[in-house]
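Quick one: structure for this chain?
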Amino acid sequence: MLISAGYIVFYGLILVTAILFFYYIYFFSRLAFYNPNSTHQSQQHPVSVIVCAKNEDENLAKHVPGLIFQKYNSSLQIIIVNDNSTDDSKYILHELNSTFNALTMVELQNEARFIAGKKFPLSVGIREARHEIVLLTDADCVPASENWVQKMQDGYAEGIEIVLGYGAYQKRSGFLNKVIRFETFHSALQYLSYALAGSPYMGVGRNLSYKKSLFMNNKGFASINHLPGGDDDLFINKVATKSNTAIVIDAEAHTLSTPKTTWKAWKRQKTRHFSTSKYYKSKHKFLLVLYSVAHFLFYPLLIAVAIMFDWRMAIGVLIAKSIVQFIPFSKAMKKLNEADLVKWIFVMDLWMLFYYIFFAPMLFKKEAKSW
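Got it. Here's what it folds into:
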């Protein structure tokens, strides 16, 4: 007995919806309902904060004071690696250091041949770290509070070697800002939820911490030095395990970055980020691709069911999917201090269809060598 095309698209929609339900309930609900252990005592580990900068004079002038004025009672080292900058970074850093006398400055004057991106300056910074715990951020980021260091290092408990944080973007007016912030939230929803599910696969260099010994014992970035990116996500993909990774999502532990203001600049930024995901472990690539494919196919199949099968069934599936999605998404947004995006959930969910179309070809594009 032949099955009509209408039934085929209907069964396809049911399958895709079931896959999405699995991710919403099994993975994303973990972050949505996550309550960190509030009973353990606050700690005071010595910490080395590392920032790599290349032609970031304005950002250094604006954001380094936010690192210097962290409220932290234990030993705190702030390392700025100036990677062959041709602007006024060197002079600004010397002025900051003469004023505050709190910086460890590393001046790189020769390019590292055959090592792409910022992995070489970051490796130098980690080797200069006096303390076991290193806390990474970028020159264009500022801590969301003066308690950033305290909150992030609190994530370390027995056996923990990696702490994943959230690197948010500043809230601005306009649709592009909402797109950037939703995409950032959506990415964090995945990597933080996967970590809670015992399958950590990435972190973001805007807000990431791990132990120096973990870096040294795994030979740093040696296995990915030929790639322009990966200093955060590919390294974490390699060394993170179920038992050695924790997350910190306290609003005071976030970092804030200045968002791009043009679609062209944002596209260029996202292209660099997409270039490394194809090197993830197979299980992570499978899980990420399965979710993206299901997410992408949902709306085309929904329209096909409405036209070829029964519009009432299509509406029923859409309502069910929207309810199951809204609960973990809205709760997670509030936990990550992105509550203003709740009312945009369904608009952005539809936007993601075009996002996949726009950025999927980037997975096959040759990586740029600069950072």
